[in-house]
Write a structure and sequence with these properties.
Shape: elongated
Largest sheet: 3 strands, antiparallel
CATH superfamily of the largest domain: Elongation factor Ts, dimerisation domain
CATH class of the largest domain: Alpha Beta
Strand order of the largest sheet: 1-2-5
Number of helices: 7
Number of strands: 5
Helix content: 40-55%
Strand content: 15-25%
Radius of gyration: 18 Å
Distance between the termini: 58 Å
CATH topology of the largest domain: Tetrahydropterin Synthase, Chain A
Length: 170
């Protein structure tokens, strides 16, 4: 079966996966776009799962300052190598995460980071990785990180973050 290049390009635009990966996924599912998207998501999750215990000692510290100059955020985003830390995909993710932190005021990175005495009624709001991604609200922050892991081929972890709001006591 031959997949039209326009279909491969559409899948690439929708998923940001590589051309070869898009073509392969479409071939595997007989050209069905939605099934190909799901196939690519599953592959990305499998790659991220394999990488989850790999040490992340490189990375960047990224900032975001809101245009009002009243809210700002810092995030330390780690990866495996200095090479990946300097890629556009990684730097864009770091910036987007700093903006996410400034906009949504997470208190923890993951649900596991929440102290036992914390009211766990809404971990999606309190935990950065569980929040809906502000630039693409159909995905969580963790899903966006997993997509970037798939693209760059390295483990990526949010190590820590801080949010500042003028006049706030938190």
């Amino acid at each position: 079966m031959k997949i039209p290049i326009e279909t491969v390009k559409e899948l690439r635009n929708r998923t940001n996966a590589g051309i070869a990966d898009c073509s392969k996924a479409l071939l595997e599912v007989g050209g069905d776009m939605e099934k190909a998207i799901e196939c690519l998501k599953q592959r990305g999750a499998a790659i991220a799962e394999k990488k989850k215990d790999v040490a992340t000692t490189e990375g960047v510290i990224e900032t975001y300052i809101h245009h009002t100059k009243r809210i700002g955020a810092l995030v330390e985003l780690n990866c495996e190598t200095d090479f990946v830390a300097h890629t556009d995909e990684f730097k864009e993710l770091a910036h987007d995460l700093a903006m996410q932190i400034a906009a949504n005021t997470p208190q923890f990175i993951t649900i596991e980071d929440m102290p036992p005495e914390t009211d766990p009624t809404d971990p999606q709001a309190a935990c950065l990785l569980s929040q809906l991604f502000i630039k693409e609200p159909t995905k969580t922050v963790q899903e966006v990180i997993t997509e970037t892991i798939t693209k760059v081929g390295e483990n990526i972890k949010v190590r820590r973050f801080a949010r500042f709001e003028l006049g706030a006591d938190h």
